[in-house]
UniProtKB/TrEMBL annotation:
UniProt source species: Sporothrix bragantina
Pfam families given in the database record: NmrA (PF05368)
Superkingdom field: Eukaryota
PANTHER family: NITROGEN METABOLITE REPRESSION PROTEIN NMRA FAMILY MEMBER, NMRA-LIKE DOMAIN-CONTAINING PROTEIN
Membership in a protein family: Belongs to the NmrA-type oxidoreductase family.
Alphabetically ordered keywords of this record: NADP
Protein name: NmrA-like domain-containing protein
Entry keyword Hydrolase: no
InterPro entries, sorted: NAD(P)-bd_dom_sf (IPR036291), NmrA-like (IPR008030), NmrA-like_oxidored (IPR051164)
Limits of the NmrA-like domain: 1-295
Amino acid sequence: MTKLIVVVGATGKQGGSVARTFLGLPGWRVRAVTRNPESNAALSLKDAGAEVVQADLHNDDLTALKAAFDGAHAIFVNTDFWETYRPAAAALIMAGKDAGPAGRQAFDYETACRKHAADVAATIPTLEKFVLSSLTSLVGGSLDPSKFTQSFHPESKNWGVDYIEQHVPALAPKLSVIVPAAYNTNRLVIPKKMGDNMYTFFSPVHPHIHVPTIDPETGMGPFVRCLVEDEPAGTKLLAYDSNQTIAEAVEVFKRVTGKNASMVPVSTTQMVAAGASWEMLRVVDYINEHDMYETGEPGYIKPSQLTSPPVRPSFEEWAKTFDWDKAIEENAGR
C-alpha cells in the first residue's frame, strides 16, 4: 500500500528536504502544504511529483488544513519563528524602541500555528507518525510565556511538544521530535575578513564547546525518514551531520580554504552591547553552560543511536564544496 506523508513548510529548507527525500522512496506519495502554491519552490515540488495544496496554519478557519491532512499516514511540521520576528524587531528598532517585544509577537504567531497543526492532526484516523521540528527548552519547558527570559525562539518550538504531550492525548502517542543542529551556514561558522588573507571568527561560543552542524536541505529528509520508517513513535532526535567545536571548525576553514584565520572570543553581553539581540544569543549562553550535544539531552537520542543512521558528510567534507568567499562577503555587513 502506498502511504501518504504530508509536509508542512515544504517550500522551506527543512520541509523541502523531507519532501524530496520521500518523493524518492518507494511506497510513499507526498502532499506539500504551502501558503503559496504558485511559488517557484512549490512548482518545483509539483514538477517532481508532489501534490501541492494551499493552507495557512495561522488561519483560525481550519477547513483547508483539515483537507490537507486528510488521509495522511505521516505528517512533518516545521514553522518559522524568524519570519515574524525579523520585521517586528526591525519596526521597533526603527521607532527607537527595544526589539524585545518582537520575540513575544513571534512566539504568539508560531504557537498558534503549532496548536492548529496538532489539533487537526489529532482528528486524522489514518495517522501513524507526527514528526515535529523543534528545539529544546532553555527553561525546562512551559506553556506559560511569562517564565521565559529574553529568548522566545526555542520556547515557541518546544511549546508545541509540551502542548501535544499535555493536552492532545489522541496525538501524543504518535509524536516524534527532531531537533536540528545549527545550520552549516550559521553565522557562528562564517568568519569576518579583516585584511589581505586574514580572517577572524568572533565567537561567543567557548572554544571547547561543541556546535554540531547540519545541512538542512540535504540532511533533514534522511533523518525524518528514520523517524517515520525505522523508529517507534515517541523518539526524540538531536539531528546533526557533524559534531565539532568552534575551534575545530576554524581549523577546518583554514585547511579547506588555505586562508589564515584566528578565533577571537567575545561574550554574549558584548555582542548585545554592539547591537545584537538576546533573542538570538540567549541560546548561546545555554550551549556554553551545558555542551548539550556532547553530553546529551535528557530524553533525546543522537544520530549514532538510530536503527539505521543516514550516511552524512562531515563538516570538513561539506566545507570543501561551500562557497566561502560568497558567504564571507554576505556576512560582512551583519
